[in-house]
Automatic annotation (TrEMBL):
Residues 84-106 are annotated as: Disordered. GO terms for molecular function: DNA binding. The keyword DNA-binding applies. Keywords: DNA-binding. Pfam families: HTH_26. It comes from Actinoplanes regularis. The lineage of its organism: Bacteria, Bacillati, Actinomycetota, Actinomycetes, Micromonosporales. It comes from the Bacteria. Residues 4-72 form the HTH cro/C1-type domain. This is DNA-binding transcriptional regulator, XRE family. InterPro entries: Cro/C1-type_HTH.
Length: 106
């Protein structure tokens, strides 16, 4: 995920974290200067949903505007398995739910 707070704020004419912090306080969300700096300059590892709701309200956006999915990053994290020459690709077992039933005659 990529955090997009600064770009969304800039689109609303908010250029400084202190200005954003003041707008959040006016909306009922008191954020420390340190926490605001972290939200403004980096990607938070966690954020409270209540805080996200207030941020979205101030910026007039949705969480999807602030949290940008990066599927290529997810794919890059998957472990790569090296396959030996002549080795066949293993077949994953199929999970069966419920009782084990035989197939009806054709």
């Amino acid at each position: 995920m990529r955090w997009n707070l600064r770009l969304r704020a800039a689109e609303k004419g908010i250029w400084k974290s202190t200005e954003m912090r003041r707008l959040l306080a006016d909306a009922g969300l008191e954020i420390s200067a340190g926490k605001m700096s972290g939200l403004w300059t980096g990607t938070p590892t966690t954020i409270r949903l209540d805080d996200l709701d207030v941020i979205c309200s101030v910026l007039g956006c949705s969480p999807a505007d602030l949290l940008i999915c990066e599927p290529e990053q997810v794919a890059a994290r998957r472990p790569q398995r090296v396959q030996a020459v002549g080795e066949q690709q293993p077949v994953a077992p199929v999970a069966r739910l419920g009782r084990q039933r035989s197939t009806p005659p054709a």
